[in-house]
Amino acid sequence: GIDLLSLLRGSSRHRHIPVVVVTSSDSEEDRKAVRALNASAYFRKPSSLAGFIELAAVIRNTLHGKTPGAA
Length: 71
Description:
By secondary structure, the chain is of the alpha+beta class. It contains 3 helices and 2 strands.
């Protein structure tokens, strides 16, 4: 994950690609690394199917510049 994000951000051809990180890691070190590499968003992986469905909607809205609950 972080290695791929680093490669994308290091490439002038690919650095514009939005990258959403979804992880089970609770590591502050991982969060700092992802922020330093300018990920588009960082989310903790849900443990339930309902959580994944909700997260998918949040990610879609994040990538399209919408805030939750906005019309």
